[in-house]
Amino acid sequence: MMSLEDLIFSILSDTDIQRLRLSSLEPWDLDEGFFSLWQDPRLCRHLHLPLQSGSDAILRRMGRRTTTQDFAELVSSARSSIPGVAITTDIIAGFPGETPDDFLQTLEFIRSLHLAGGHIFTYSERKGTPAARFPKKVPNRIRTERSSALRKVISESRHRYYRDHLGSRQPVLWEAVSESGPDGLEIRGWTDNYIRVHYTGQRNLSNEITHVILSELNSDGNTVRARHTE
User: Are residues 22 and 67 in the same domain?
Assistant: First the structure.
C-alpha cells in the first residue's frame, strides 16, 4: 500500500501541478522526515493538524493517540523544516468530563502554539458514539462559553500570524473576483501559507499565481491587503 508520503512525492515528481495543499493530517501519522517533502515549493506551507483538546486527560478520554507534548514537538519540527509554515487545528469544547482545569489547560496550550488559525467545535452528542454514553456531561451553556473563549484565542493568534507576515513577498493563487469598483477589480486569493489576500487591480487574475507584497491587515482582521509586484 502506498504511503501518504509516497503519494505526495509521486504527485510532485510525475505532474507539473503548480500548487498542492494538504488537508487534515492526524499528528501520529507524521514523523520529522515527512517534512522534507517541503523542499519542493509547490507544496503549500500549511498543515492542518487536528488536536481536539489541550488537556492530556481529555485526549485520553477521546482516544486520541497523541499528547500535548508530542503535538508541541511535532509543531516545532514542522516550523524548523518549513519556514513560514501555517499550522491550524481543530478543538472540541465541552467534551464529556472536561473540567474547568481541563478547559484552562486547553486555552493556555492553544495560546502557546501561536497558530495561524483553526476551527472550534462545541461538543454535541451523537447517538451511537461512545462519548454519548460518557458521564459528567458539560452543561450546554458552559460548552458555548468555552467555545467562545477558544474562538477568541484562535482569532488573536491568526491576527498575530498575519501581522508577522506584513511586508513579506508571497505567492498568491487568485480564486475570486467581485464586481469592479472605482479603483478596479476586487480580487481575492490565498498565499501558499494560508493567508487570505485581497487586491485591487485592473486585470482579472482568477486561477493565476502571482507574487504580492502583503501590505496591511484589513479592518476585519481576517484578510490582508496586498500590493502587486508582478
Answer: yes
pTM over 0.90? The answer is yes
Angle between helices 140-164 and 100-113 in degrees, nearest 10: 10
Strands (E), the chain: 46-48, 86-93, 117-122, 169-177, 185-191, 196-201, 209-217, 224-228
* Interval 18-75: pLDDT, tens: 999 998 999 999 987 899 999 999 999 999 999 999 999 999 999 999 999 999 999 9
Q: What distance in Å separates the CA atoms of residue 91 and residue 36, rounded to the nearest whole number?
A: 27
CATH of the domain at 191: 2.40.50
HSE of 209, CA atoms in CB hemisphere, 13 A: 12
Which letter does DSSP use for residue 204 in this model?
A: -
Query: Domain containing 61: what range?
Result: 18-164
Question: If you search the block for the grid coordinates 487536528, which residue do you land on?
Answer: 50
Query: How far is residue 83's CA from residue 69's CA, in Å, rounded to a whole number?
Result: 21
